[in-house]
Amino acid sequence: MASAAGPAEPADERRSDPGDADAWLAATRADEAARVRSRRTSLVRQRAEEGTLLGAIADLAERQVLGSVVLVGDRRLTGWLDWVGADAVLVATASGQRTLVPARAVVAVSAADRSLPPSPRPPVSAADLQGLLTGLAGDGVRVAARAGATHESGDLAHVGVDVVTLRRDDRTLVHLALGAIDELTLLDDPWAGAALG
């Protein structure tokens, strides 16, 4: 039935208030923002749950931030993580000294900036500590090694399956168990200025 004002609007086609549309749009945006935050939180949690210590170290090395590496025996090295291998890391201090640290000797690592949770990513390099040391042995590279309370220094003479041999200044040899070495500082750094791969 038509009225004098014109045809009647069907009951299911109501005019909506523009304020209702704005409220609906704001609610939809808030819901989407909440879903994004929830998904981000879930991904960060998943990353942390799948994370490894070497993954966290690799992330810090990639970001090239100043970090602190705590070793067994409560020793601390502060510097930049130059290289992360399959079972070791290389820390460069502000003085330029570089120290190889077996991953099993690392107790904790932190960064001077706000860091992400540990990452499940693999090490940067597939090279391992024994392979690196084998490549240096016999070249007259001077090192200082710590193995628990034992401190030895000398030229890196030989590297075997599970032994590192140093030639002391008095020309005597000392054999250190590779698995016992907590840190090995390069006194003559053959990699100075070079990037390790």
Order of helices and strands: HHEEEEEHEEEEE
Largest sheet: 10 strands, antiparallel
* Low-confidence blocks of residues: none
SSE-based structural type: alpha+beta
> Looking at CATH, which topology of one domain would you report?
SH3 type barrels
Distance from first to last alpha carbon: 85 Å
Radius of gyration: 30 Å
What is the count of β-strands? Answer: 10
Task: Figure out the total of helices.
Answer: 3
Mean pLDDT, to the nearest integer, reads: 82
Level of helix content?
25-40%
Please indicate the percent range of residues in DSSP E strands (runs of 2 or more). Answer: 25-35%
> What is the second-level CATH architecture of one domain?
Roll
**Overall spatial form:** elongated
State the name of the first-level CATH class of one domain. Answer: Mainly Beta
Spatial order of the strands forming the largest sheet = 5-1-2-3-4-10-6-7-8-9
Protein traits:
alpha+beta, elongated, SH3 type barrels, 197 residues, 10-stranded antiparallel beta sheet
Task: Describe, in plain words, how this protein is organized in 3D.
This protein has 197 residues and is an alpha+beta fold. The chain has a domain at 128-191: SH3 type barrels (Roll). It is built from three helices and ten strands. The protein has helices at 18-49, 53-63, 129-136; strands at residues 66-71, 76-84, 88-92, 98-102, 106-111, 142-147, 150-159, 163-167, 173-177, 183-186. A ten-stranded antiparallel β-sheet has the order 5-1-2-3-4-10-6-7-8-9. Strand 2 (76-84) and strand 3 (88-92) form a beta hairpin. The longest helix has 32 residues, at 18-49. The protein is elongated and about 95 Å long. The termini are far apart. The mean pLDDT is 82.
